[in-house]
Amino acid sequence: MNILVTGGAGYIGTHTLIELIKNGHSPVVVDNLSNSNAESIRRVEAIVGTSIPFHKIDVQDKEELEKVFSRNTFDAIVHFAGLKSVGQSVSHPLEYYSNNIDSTLVLLDVAQDYGVKKFIFSSSATVYGTPEELPLKETNRTGFGITNPYGQTKFMLEQILADVAIANPDFEVTLLRYFNPVGADSSGTIGEDPNDIPNNLLPYVSQVAVGKLEKVSVFGDDYDTPDGTGVRDYIHVVDLAKGHVAALNHSKPGTEVYNLCTGTGTSVLELITAFGRVAGKEIPYEIVPRRPGDVGACYASPEKANKELGWFAEKSIEEACEDSWRWQSQNPSGYA
Ligand code: NAD
Ligand code: WQD
Predict the structure, then answer these.
(1) Which residues contact 195 (CB under 8 A, 6 or more apart)?
(2) In 10 A of CB 94, how many CB atoms?
(3) Residue 218's pLDDT is what?
(4) Which of 10, 142, 168, 199 has its CA 20 to 30 A from that of 295?
(5) Which ligand is nearest to the CA of 31?
(6) What is the distance between the alpha carbons of residues 170 and 141, in angstroms, rounded to a whole number?
(7) Given ligand 1 and candidates 15, 30, 34, 84, which is best to mutate, with the most ligand atoms within 8 Å of its CB?
(8) Quick one: which of 301, 13, 330, 298 has its CA closest to 187?
(9) Is 11 a catalytic residue?
């Protein structure tokens, strides 16, 4: 398939490009590089041994986007482009609402004009807000207890996409709710490259391991979890990338939603210990108060994706730590 990949220069986008190409698809990337570096695309090209058409474009720019559509015939769109920092979204809500919502509206508009039939959207565990039950299923309520504008944009965009699919019966929408993506390609040449001090746990731990940061602050050890620290469903980014290929292979009218997760929870302390084992060093940490807005535990059932997409998360948390460590230790300053 010819596939438009928005946000393809980013963390999940780059790993997905590899899986798309390995499976015979032809991706075209658009990205404004607001949170990435064109070097990431060059590195993907080196891994797959083929060139990837790349356009430095803001998805909100309809005129520029139309030029890309007019030169290609896309069978599907995988829409990663968006801002993703929970904390920044609280301090810059308008930037988040306008970037994430406007870009998707413009993209949908152009996609409709050019008759694209399939749309895969990067949604997030965050739409479940305060989990109604564990493990979470796709049928659980969404929108209740979302504590930040970033999460709201994902919740709103899920609704917008479902409405567009209702109005256009031959337009298929797949909402993929990612849990906590971690790890990197096993080559060690691409990976997560946060602009500032990382917000997410695993990139923070890996920067402590490489000596860029002093110690990990563990946000709370008084949750109702086995060791009192937060529990999450960490999924290897390569497994996540494969989930997109599986979703492209699957055809069903209307809107379908899938959790991309492992079904297993790992605590903050378990993750720090696993990373230390892999890096061959003790990771210093201290327990600090809970982070506002956090829930104690969040993990989900992958059963629907297993059954309907034939997709399974295969990689372990140890492999994720090994791959992240290879990327971090070989590229201490990321792509810079
Ligand atoms: P990322 O920041 O590495 O990648 C997103 C890419 O989109 C970046 O390259 C950025 O430059 C680009 N971009 C942003 N706004 C754009 C615009 N208006 N026009 C063109 N390009 C634009 O993030 P990621 O971790 O790869 O996440 C990809 C998607 O998955 C995002 O939508 C994110 O919200 C979602 N998601 C991520 C996680 C996670 O923890 N990483 C979890 C759930 C969902
Ligand atoms: C994981 C655990 C923290 C950092 C976020 C978004 C979610 C999704 C994934 C995009 C929690 C603890 C963290 C640290 C810590 N992104 N922690 N010290 O909060 O589950 O999810 O990223 O859609 O929307 O909310 O991920 O990696 O920030 O935290 O103790 O320095 O690690 O309290 O228990 P989270 P995270």
Answers:
(1) 35
(2) 8
(3) 98
(4) 10
(5) 1
(6) 27
(7) 84
(8) 330
(9) no
Report pLDDT for 195.
87
In this prediction, residue 27 carries a pLDDT of 98
| C-alpha dihedral (283, 229, 142, 256), degrees to nearest 10 | 50
**Catalytic-labelled residue, pool 11, 96, 150, 258:** 150
Q: Which residues line ligand 1 (CB under 6 A)?
A: 6-7, 9-13, 31-36, 58-60, 80-84, 99, 103, 122, 124, 178, 181
Question: Scanning the structure block, which residue is given the tokens 């930037």?
Answer: 95
DSSP-based three-state secondary structure for 324? helix
Of the candidates 41, 40, 37, the one whose C-alpha atom is nearest the C-alpha of residue 28 is 41
Strand-pairing partners, residue 181, are: 235
Dist. CA 10–CA 33, nearest whole Å: 8
pLDDT in tens, 123-161: 999 999 999 999 999 999 999 999 999 999 999 999 999
Tell whether ligand 2 has an atom less than 6 A from the beta carbon of residue 238.
no
Low-confidence ranges of the chain (pLDDT < 50): none
Tell how far the Cα of 181 is from the centroid of ligand 1, in angstroms. Answer: 12
Q: Does this model's pTM top 0.90?
A: yes
For residues 145-169, one letter each, b for 16 or more C-beta atoms within 10 angstroms of the residue's C-beta and e for the rest, the string is: ebbbbbbbbbbbbbeebeebbeeee
CB 175 within 8 A of CB 257: yes
Residue 41: partners with Cβ closer than 8 Å, 6 or more residues away: 8, 9, 14, 17, 29, 52, 54
Atom of ligand 1 nearest to the CA of 99: 18
Peptide bond into 289 cis (omega under 30): no
From ligand 2's centre to the CA of 200, what distance in Å? 5
